[in-house]
Amino acid sequence: MKRPHRNSGGFAILLTLLIFTLLVTVTFQFNTSMTSELYAAANLRDNARLGSIAKSGFHYAIAVLFEDANAENEFDSLHEAWANFRALSANSSSMYEDGRFEVRIVDHSGRIQINQLLKAPEVMGEEYIYNMTQKDLLTRFLRSEEFDLDEETVDDLVDALKDWMDPDHEVTGFGAENSYYQTLDKPYACKNGPVDSLEELLLVRGISRELFYGTDEMPGIASYLTTQGNDGKININTAHPLVLSALSEHLDQEMVEEMIAYREDEDNDLSSISWYKGVRGMSSEVSIDHLVSTSSHVFEIRSTGIMETMSKRVEGLVERKEGAIRIVSWKSE
User: Fold this and answer.
1) What is the model's pLDDT at position 301?
2) pLDDT single digits (tens) 137-160
């Protein structure tokens, strides 16, 4: 007796569809994986290229500062090539096929040196005390109406800064030592040493992010302070008006504006630290020679590599001394 004939055509078609579906799925996944890897490789390549462009801009800025150090004049002002950020970046696009850099050099010698707040003891074992010249300068600065801080708050903040830096564990006035920092929700130790970076100030009692970085309504103190510089003297030729105002209690807004106007005139001689005395309307009570200089030694360089809509930035502090330039700190995005 013959067996009934089975129709295997339907099964073959089904098997063929399953195999085809599997091949399409595998091919799609492979294509997706390859595309992702290609994008990742392209991003890695572009990131490396952006980094190289940004670093080139950084070293270009160093070369400009080095050339300026060997110029004939021995003073620094905002009329010099290093201070013209548009000119620094103007021709960078001609150096690369598909990229450019934007460079800005900021003079930190025109800022208040926070580490000069203390005076080291002359005799071993004695306490660190305030450098009163620098304390008065910092206090006047923090009392600027732009920061909207009352006198008591400013005094407490300055005491907290001293406690953060001095090596002892004694609280100064209404400052703060470990007895305060160890009781926070996320406790940490008081530094009891010099400030290494400005961002470290965010750890000090009384310095909020709003005060440090600023808001839409007020500037941040970070733009006017520095951790570098050995003598604490401020370059009067490059200092911001807020810093100039803090140099003397006898300086008013009109005098500061006249100082700015005077140094903006390229015909005026800015080589002497006493040029401010010849400014129109200057009070005879203003005597700041001991606080100022006309030369700069510490600079911040910010260099951004740009390719179409992509960018990457490197920045760092450099010290220029005796014709040589040393990189103090460096960071990259």
Assistant:
1) 95
2) 999 999 999 999 999 999 999 999
How far apart, in whole angstroms, are the C-alpha atoms of residue 279 and residue 258? 7
Phi, psi of 153 (to 5 degrees): -65, -40
> Residue 101 contacts by C-beta under 8 Å, 6 or more apart in sequence?
53, 54, 56, 57, 60, 89, 92, 303, 304, 305, 306
d(CA 165, CA 160): 9
Residue pLDDT, tens place only, 154-172: 999 999 999 999 998 999 9
Q: What CA–CA distances, in Å, run from 138 to 154, 187, 249?
A: 9, 28, 12
The pTM is what? 0.82
Paired sense of beta strands 112-113 and 225-226, if any: parallel
The answer to whether 325 and 66 are in contact (CB under 8 A) is: yes
Can you name the residues that pair with 331 across neighbouring β-strands? 315
Residue 207 has pLDDT above 60, yes or no: yes
Per DSSP (E only), the strands in 74-217 are 100-107, 112-113, 118-119, 129-130
Count of all residues that appear for the chain in the document: 333
Q: Is the pLDDT of residue 128 over 70?
A: yes
**Domain locations along the chain:** 10-147+224-333, 149-163+170-217
Of 272, 303, 312, nearest to 289 by C-alpha is 272
Please name which of 165, 239, 157 lies closest in space to residue 200, comparing C-alpha atoms: 165
User: What's the CATH code, domain 149-163+170-217?
Assistant: 1.10.40.60
Residues 39 and 199: beta-carbon distance below 8 Å? no
Which pair of tokens denotes residue 192?
Answer: 């009891």
Please give the pLDDT value at position 38: 46
Query: What's the angle, vertex CA 51, arms to CA 45 and CA 110, rounded to 5?
Result: 170
